[in-house]
Design a protein that fits this description.
Low-confidence stretches: none
Structural class: mainly beta
Order of helices and strands: EEEEEEEEEEEEEEEEEEH
Radius of gyration: 15 Å
Mean pLDDT: 86
Strand content: over 45%
Distance between the termini: 45 Å
Amino acid sequence: MNATIKNIFVGDYLNGVKLFSSTNVRVENAFLRDNSRAIDLESSSNNVIVRNIVQQSNPINTRQGIFFNDSHNNVVVGNSVIDSRRAYGFIDASDNGFADNTATNNFNAIFVVNGRGVIERNNFIDNDTDVDLTNADNFIFYDDTNQRGNYWSKFDEVIEMEKAIDEAIFY
């Protein structure tokens, strides 16, 4: 399938945009407000999620901003999730490109269970927890070769988290 979902507003639904078993779909410039899952990819691959804004007025009722379940090889660039329970969620999701996104004032900025990927050049601002990883030790947050990482407003907490990850992986 080759499809583009562009320049839409969706508010107050279970899923703002739901891609199920989809390939080659582009979701661009959507404004999604107060949906339980703003953008939900399930069993989907090779999609592009770019320049979308997710904002919630009640983060308790919102599970995910942008969520990937069993979805692989997608590109997620230039999105912003504000005031959500979990800004970006990955469950059994691998090899998704994730760059130039922003998570602001969320309970969890990134939530990962069973996955791998590269997360670089993103902004994590004033989230309660920036990263929550379970069985996801193959996620890379800093590219040594190109010296690219992420911005963390709670930098000291991230340094402690990275030390704990390094010790769990390499020692």
